[in-house]
Amino acid sequence: MNIEIIAGLDQGYEGRPEQARLIMKVAATAGADVANISTC
Asked: How many beta carbons lie within 10 A of that of residue 30, not counting itself?
C-alpha cells in the first residue's frame, strides 16, 4: 500500500499565482507528494 501526502492550498494562496507557487514549494520541501488547489 502506497501512502501519498496531499497538501491542500484551498484558501492559503488568496488567488495569487505567485503565492500558490511558494506554498507548493514549501509543501514539497515538507514532503508532500501532491498539491491540491480547490477553487469555488
From this structure: 9
The x, y and z cell numbers of residue 23, run together, are 506554498
DSSP one-letter code for 3: -
pLDDT digits (tens, 9 = 90+) for 1-40: 899 999 888 777 777 889 889 988 999 999 999 988 876 6
SS3 34: strand
Three cell numbers written together for 25: 514549494
Domain ranges of the chain: 8-36
3 state SS of 23: helix
Q: Is the dihedral of CA 24, 30, 34, 39 positive or negative?
A: negative
